[in-house]
Design brief:
It is built from ten helices and seven strands. By secondary structure, the chain is of the alpha/beta class. Strand 1, helix 5 and strand 2 form a beta-alpha-beta unit. Bound molecules: S-adenosylmethionine.
Length: 243
């Protein structure tokens, strides 16, 4: 079951968000409700095919480095599941069975995940463990408490409290597991705060390293040498792996 906006307001209160944060989160949901039907095309527009393949390959290789035949994966802020589905297929074509879940705050994104055969979890990135408890209780799913890989693509700059998200990811990471984040590098296009509902204008490699080091023992951050193109503007991408 996918929750309604009314239920989501109740869940956000139960998760302990204050009125200001609830307002901001609802604004994110309203924006992404309208983006959801077009999200797959938007990703194809932002990134060329070879760039999409490289991105998926980066994630798949990182998962394979765990050396396991079965992995539980959580995609945080999975959106329409564009990358979630490709990562699952990429792993399975290399003989790794992936039990993969997509967590997102926006109901229409969850519907698209479900259509792609990915178990949708309604939830907030800043409070993953508690969100999964609520989703298991109210949405008729039985998602695990821990995952071997927690990943997130093109979403980190949307989070209200990115540092809290890293702590929240760590809480649901199984022993020996890793977090893989791909997102946009810092830029100066403040118009994206309005046009794309971006909360932050990306992060520099130094900022990501500093945030990651506060939460994780192992921190590896590097530029991908890839760009996404938004409204004619090129924005660089980075890859961060935390364990
Ligand atoms: C730019 S889209 C990225 C979607 C997907 N990861 C991709 O690569 O196409 C950002 C997603 O983050 C979700 N989102 C924003 N803030 C969130 C939060 N605090 N917790 C969970 N999801 C959130 C939105 O609903 C939206 O689906």
């Amino acid at each position: 079951m996918i929750p309604s906006i009314k239920e989501i307001r109740l869940f956000l209160r139960r998760l302990g968000f204050d009125q200001g944060s609830i307002k901001e989160l609802i604004e994110q949901i309203e924006y992404f409700e309208t983006e959801a039907p077009e999200r797959d095309d938007i990703v194809r527009d932002y990134l060329r095919n070879e760039c999409i393949e490289r991105l998926v390959d980066e994630i798949v290789k990182e998962v394979i480095r765990l050396g396991r035949k079965d992995v539980r994966i959580l995609d945080v802020a999975a959106g329409s599941g564009f990358f979630t589905e490709r990562v699952k297929n990429g792993l399975e074509s290399r003989g790794v069975r992936a039990e993969i879940y997509g967590l997102d705050i926006t109901p229409s994104m969850l519907k698209r995940l479900k259509k792609k055969g990915i178990t949708p979890i309604w939830g907030v990135a800043e409070k993953i463990r508690e969100s999964i408890e609520i989703a298991n209780e109210h949405c008729g799913i039985n998602a695990p408490k821990e995952f071997d890989v927690v990943l997130s693509t093109l979403a980190f700059h949307h989070f209200l409290k990115p540092e809290a998200v890293l702590g929240s990811m760590k809480e649901v990471l199984a022993n020996g597991g890793k977090v893989v984040i791909i997102d946009v590098l810092k830029h100066s296009h403040s118009e994206f705060k309005d046009t794309l509902k971006d909360t932050h204008l990306g992060f520099s490699l130094g900022e990501i390293k500093e945030m990651g080091s506060k939460v994780f023992g192992k921190v590896e951050v590097r530029p991908l040498g890839l760009h996404c193109e938004v409204d004619g503007v090129l924005i660089g991408l980075y890859r961060a792996v935390f364990a």
